[in-house]
Amino acid sequence: MVNPIPPGLKKIWDNWNIRGLMLFSLFLQTFLILFAPLRKRTGHKLIIMLIWSVYLVADWAANFAVGLISDSQRDTHDNQCNSSRDPAEKSYLLAFWPPFLLLHLGGPDTITAFALEDNELWLRHLLGLVFQVVAAVYVFLQSLPQTKLAIPTLLMFLAGTIKYLERTRALYLASLDRFRDSMLKEPDPGPNYAKLMDDIASKKEANLPTMIILRGEHSDDKPKPSTIVEHSGEKPNPSTIVEHSGENSNRDGRLNDVQVVHYAYHFFEIFKGLIVDLIFSFQERNESREFFHKLSAEDALRVIEVELNFIYEALYTKVQVVHSKFGYCSRFVSFASVVASLLFFYFKVKKSGFDEIDVVITYALFWGAIALDTVAFFMLIFSDWTFAVLYDPKNGSKMLRKYIAATIGWFLIFKRPRCYEQKKHSCKLLATPFLLRRWSGDVPGHNLIKYCLKGRPHNFHKVRDDVYRFTEKFIPAFIRGEDNRFIHLINNGVSQFWGYFNGKVTHLINKVIDCFGLTDFMDEIRYVSHVPLTEQLWEFIFTELRDKSINAEAPEVAKKISSARGNSILKNNTYLEPYLTKVTYDESLLLWHIATELLYHTEEEVTRHNNEDIEKGENEDTRHKHREFSKLHTEEEVTSNNNNGPEEEVTGHNNGPDHRALSKLLSDYMLSINLLWPLRLRSAVRIRHNTFAST
């Protein structure tokens, strides 16, 4: 039978399959430790898909390489007696490589899971550790007793096992059951109210002074930030915020960068229970309310983005393992074992009999492991977790914390959110440098009308890069102009041909996508917009939530506000209320989305026609009427502004945010969250796909 594989290709595979996989596995680990953090910094689906692919292939490559080494060792042992040259001498390095693969299977610190469901498979991962250790031991035993690499192999075996255990424990700590258990407090039956009332009644009968004092639930050793003060009826003032260690905030009343990390970590420790649907006490609720009532919108965004970064790293990275006594000790032992193994291999092991290329690959594996641990060490030092732990009141004196704040504060400045002013829309966009972001800074959106029409999503704002600005400035105007008839004819012809061709190809591609069940995945790429968060949008959201929170003193009021579906806006149109309150949540959301879309485009059309009439200026009378109308409209705005007082916000195209555009952004965002990422919301409010399809 003819072998379909050419002999030359088979020879290359036999010589380089294990070597290539070892280098490939090292490359994948390097890629993950450097680029896995980009997952939280971008909403670009293709980048996320690339990281996901590397995450899956990394485990496969290491497992496959262990299997190839095991087979190679067995074949070498069987053919040892028939070889003129002792093949075991050449295979010693192969028996030395499986511990490196254990090190790779442990994975980098920057990613341990890609989805919450991955954390639930920690037990399967533990069994995988057992099987990989058995395979590595089997390969090592086959090289005994002639091997010269017993000591460095054992040292690397120790380092690889520790790394694998770190990843398994990280998955276990991030599993939902373990996450919930870590948040549960000791059972507290509460006070004996019957005995308490009897004591109060008896004291009143004896005419003794009686007073009930409610003790807070924060009786543990966790310090509360001193910014939490008694709630008063005064208007919140950020300048009253004072740092608990005695170091004042900035002179303008804003939080400094170290304070932001400290408070974010404090509230992360409290509200990470939201992930597992835990119920919080009134003290925890009031503490959070009183804190954010006194913050500006910018400071609130800074605290929230750091808090969310803590949650992300706790669920998808090794941070909970590394930032612990076990983690510090295991990381030191692992790194020391790798260095000791390298020194022993360099000074004590004679390289005669080894293939030179295998020796080079072994050194590459050594230095790669040391480099990855070094990068992980610096990431550990400059992480938000380290800043939060070092600045904890339990760790050292006040002077030490001040010194730490002065030392590490300079680095946090680089992570501070930055805004880019877009003159076209007169707004500021969140544009923190890509490598310094804690989150993507984008607001995803999904539009029902455009989805039905198969239209591409529209982005209101874009942060233009330098290439775009250069192209826009220096491309000759006649190429872009519509007055060039020749180019206009070519453009029409190409457009018609492309429209026909694209329709046929798109139909075929959609059939293939649907066959493999990738429709939802492709819809996220094609029909989800990513609009940079604007300063106006965030201030609008924060102001609305803060005002509602201030009014929600009683739990009943808070529950009413949380369960509202917008019916408070329709007080003057009560006949529309049944369409919101008498339907399910998903139907109500779709109704609001469609209404927002229709009103947005209706007003846009009216505004466009008015602007066209004004620009054309068909006669002087039209211009004169427009000037009179603008003058009258300006006078009315000034009068309204004077009547409202200095604290009232006057909304207009020039004096305030465009609430029409903000409403559309929020409408598209809510639909995208409920339809495409329903797991981010509680099950009670997740949109049903059949309702969306029927609509």
Structure description:
The protein has 695 residues and is an all-alpha fold. Among the domains are: 12-182 and 328-376, no CATH class; 535-636 and 655-694, no CATH class. It has helices at residues 7-35, 45-78, 87-96, 98-105, 116-119, 122-142, 150-174, 176-183, 193-205, 257-271, 282-293, 297-316, 319-322, 325-347, 356-381, 384-390, 398-414, 448-452, 466-474, 477-480, 485-515, 519-527, 535-551, 555-562, 578-581, 585-616, 620-644, 659-676, 689-694; strands at 419-422, 427-430, 442-446, 528-532. A two-stranded antiparallel sheet has the order 1-2. A two-stranded antiparallel ribbon has the order 3-4. The longest helix is centred in the N-terminal third of the chain and has 34 residues, at 45-78. It is globular. Residues 216-248, 465-472, 474-483, 625-654 and 683-687 have low confidence and may be disordered.
What is the compact description of this entry?
By secondary structure, this protein is mostly helical.
Percentage of residues in strands: under 5%
- Gyration radius from CA atoms, angstroms: 32 Å
Largest sheet: 2 strands, antiparallel
Name the structural class.
Answer: mainly alpha
How does the overall form come out from the CA principal axes?
A: globular
How many individual β-strands? 4
- Compute the average pLDDT: 77
Unreliable stretches (pLDDT < 50, length at least 5) are: 216-248, 465-472, 474-483, 625-654, 683-687
